[in-house]
Amino acid sequence: MILITGGAGYIGSHVNKLLNNKGYNTLVVDNLCESKESSVKWGKLVKCDLEDREGLEDIFNTYDISAVMHFAAFTSVSESVKCPEKYMHNNYENTVNLLNVMQEYDVNKFIFSSTAAVYGTPESIPIKESHPLKPINPYGESKVHVEKELEKRSEDYGLHYVSLRYFNASGDDPDCEIGEQHNPETHLIPLILDAAIGKRDNITIFGTDYPTPDGTCIRDYVHVEDLAQAHLLAYEYLEDGGCSDVFNLGHGTGFSVKQVIEECMSVTGIKFEVEVGERRAGDPSILVADSSKIREKLGWRPVNSSLTNIVNTAWRWHLKLNFKNHHYFND
Fold first, then answer.
1. Which domains does the chain have, with CATH numbers?
2. What is the residue-averaged pLDDT of the chain?
3. What is the pTM (predicted TM-score) of this model?
4. Among all residues, which ones are annotated catalytic?
């Protein structure tokens, strides 16, 4: 059985669906503080916080766990700047607690949900896994701490892990069974779509003076279904005896904030107000992945990650979430 922490969340729920569709048994462990029980449509759900050592031990004692996929984390860069201790405790210290229980029960396969934020301001584009880890916000720092802990445990205790450094996770389940619904929402595309349906008065661009062609930040958007596929490949890699490793997950193409807004207007056919605000702390100008390593070593391909497909699937989910009988969803 594969244990999925944070499996009621955005990426975890998509991975849970894929694993079950492939015939794997899953156990979702989630405290539901930022996710919904309704997203766990496959496998079994146990409500537990990762700081609860006794609760975790009971789970590992009750279920035959063969591997852990670890998604549970706080992920807002802006919040991490305001509340760094909160991020270090939840993202790092709670992960150490989980790893300690895994070690106690001789579970040694671990797939970690990491982030491009570990790189900070990139020294070169596209970013390779060998790039120095110099995070510029506490969110990225918390993930670097976990990666260093994994490396140490791999050397000292024989932990076999894969760390997957996501670039911008985006898009939604094309079947519209699950999707992105953060509260509060912090991701760009659903915020733009909120403006498209009138849930927000406008969308704000945070900074137009970055050293990019149109002055707005550039990011590498990768569809959540492609991320899910990477987790399946990583699990199969470890099952086949693969050594601990780190991989970037990105499409390899960057789009600016303005380009994403324009694509959303094109897909929805709706014009909405766009405002310009000040830069946010902790936002690098450009983050684009070199994902050649996982393509070559695990055979991963981001086949769903065109910007148009990302926005289309996000738009269909957004309409279902907000207007369940909307004609777009029924088309």
1. 2-170+222-249 (3.40.50.720), 188-219+252-330 (3.90.25.10)
2. 94
3. 0.94
4. 139
